[in-house]
């Protein structure tokens, strides 16, 4: 799906008259991806540093993330229709790949991930393959292989799981395998929640404290431009997303956020010094808070073109 559809609404005011962050755009999802074969079990290879466990909650999160975002913003629609090589780094269940491979049958799609969650969305089309690969350890492709390299909702996880030098290496790898003149796009989620209530604030502080204690920096997603400094025609922006209010997309954004909160349970509970029961109560109260405060999630993205030789 091309850019026009990614941002469906370009406005600072919502249906009920409340204001979003000036200069930012609200966007809505317009396509649902059904996954009749979705499975609750998958393997997640630990790198020893993750504080997000490999359980069903993470699985649901991946699902809703696909529903939450659209497919691309980089100006590659005509190239995709004509037929190009596309890489999706950290592809998870492959929802993006399946969708894109069906929409653009002339293009070839490859997905990589450190875990094999592929096939979660059913049998892939013939123009779509999966390979196990840790981006930080090096992508298993020659230099200048792909016309479009895409990564969605991976960096934040990497921020929690990897050091700043690891994610710099990952970006270098993505640039290396992109052809001169090819495009790279990163779409992320941030742990900033604007207009958040007191419980959400407390949770976000705890999540940030965990990251700090592990020597990683969650703010990297707020500075995607620095990762794209060697590229041409860079666009860096951030969209605000109603979370828990406005419409069904707001409800979906809330489910996505709560999935993240639940996934961090083991790390966050000791910091907040709360019991299981108190954690459960906190999560349901956070949902109410988001509605009450009209909270806004933050979705940074960037794309750019590799310099021609
Ligand atoms: C939140 S999921 C997003 C999946 C998919 N991009 C999407 O938007 O639906 C993050 C994915 O990044 C993968 N991941 C994290 N670190 C990675 C690394 N170093 N190399 C490859 N994949 C990685 C995880 O295994 C997980 O599948």
Task: Provide structural commentary.
With 309 residues, the chain is of the alpha/beta class. It has one domain (49-305): Rossmann fold. Helices cover 37% and strands 19% of the residues. The protein has helices at 3-6, 56-68, 77-82, 95-103, 155-161, 164-177, 198-213, 224-227, 248-263, 265-272, 276-293; strands at residues 25-26, 85-89, 108-113, 128-132, 146-152, 178-187, 193-194, 232-242, 296-305. Strands 1, 2, 3, 4, 5, 6, 7, 8 and 9 form a nine-stranded mixed beta sheet that branches. It binds S-adenosylmethionine. Residues 62, 65-66, 90-92, 95-96, 113-115, 117, 134-136, 152-154, 157-158 line the site of S-adenosylmethionine.
Strand content: 15-25%
State the total count of DSSP E strands. 9
Number of domains: 1
Fraction in helix? 25-40%
Q: Provide the CATH architecture.
A: 3-Layer(aba) Sandwich
Q: Biggest sheet, open or closed, and with what strands and sense?
A: 9 strands, mixed
| Rg calculated over all Cα atoms | 19 Å
| Name of the level-1 CATH class | Alpha Beta
**Cofactors, ions, other ligands:** S-adenosylmethionine
The CATH topology is what?
Rossmann fold
Shape: globular
What would you give as the CATH superfamily? Vaccinia Virus protein VP39
**Tally of individual helices:** 11
Distance between the termini: 29 Å
């Amino acid at each position: 799906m091309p850019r026009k559809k990614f941002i469906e609404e370009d406005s600072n005011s919502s249906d009920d008259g409340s204001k979003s962050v000036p200069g930012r755009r609200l966007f809505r999802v317009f396509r649902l991806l059904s996954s009749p074969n979705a499975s609750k079990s998958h393997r997640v290879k630990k790198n020893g540093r993750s504080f997000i466990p490999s359980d069903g909650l993470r699985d649901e999160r991946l699902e809703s993330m696909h529903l939450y975002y659209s497919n691309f913003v980089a100006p590659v629609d005509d190239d995709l229709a004509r037929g190009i090589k596309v890489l999706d780094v950290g592809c998870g269940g492959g929802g993006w790949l399946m969708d894109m491979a069906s929409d653009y049958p002339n293009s070839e799609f490859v997905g990589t991930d450190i875990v094999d969650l592929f096939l979660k969305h059913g049998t892939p089309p013939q123009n779509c393959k999966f390979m196990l690969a840790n981006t930080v350890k090096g992508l298993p492709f020659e230099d200048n292989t792909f016309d479009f390299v895409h990564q969605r909702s991976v960096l934040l996880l990497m921020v929690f799981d990897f050091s700043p030098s690891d994610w710099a290496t990952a970006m270098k790898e993505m640039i290396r395998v992109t052809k001169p003149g090819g495009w790279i796009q990163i779409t992320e989620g941030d742990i900033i929640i604007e207009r958040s209530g007191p419980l959400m604030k407390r949770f976000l502080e705890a999540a940030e404290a965990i990251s700090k204690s592990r020597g990683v920096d969650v703010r990297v997603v707020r500075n995607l431009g620095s990762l794209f400094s060697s590229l041409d025609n860079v666009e860096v922006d951030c969209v605000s997303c109603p979370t828990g209010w406005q419409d069904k997309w707001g409800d979906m954004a809330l489910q996505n956020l709560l999935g993240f909160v639940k996934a961090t349970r083991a790390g966050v509970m000791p910091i907040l010094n709360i019991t299981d029961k108190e954690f459960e109560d906190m999560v349901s109260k956070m949902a109410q808070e988001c509605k009450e405060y009209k909270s806004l999630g933050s979705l940074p993205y960037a794309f750019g073109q590799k310099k021609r030789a």
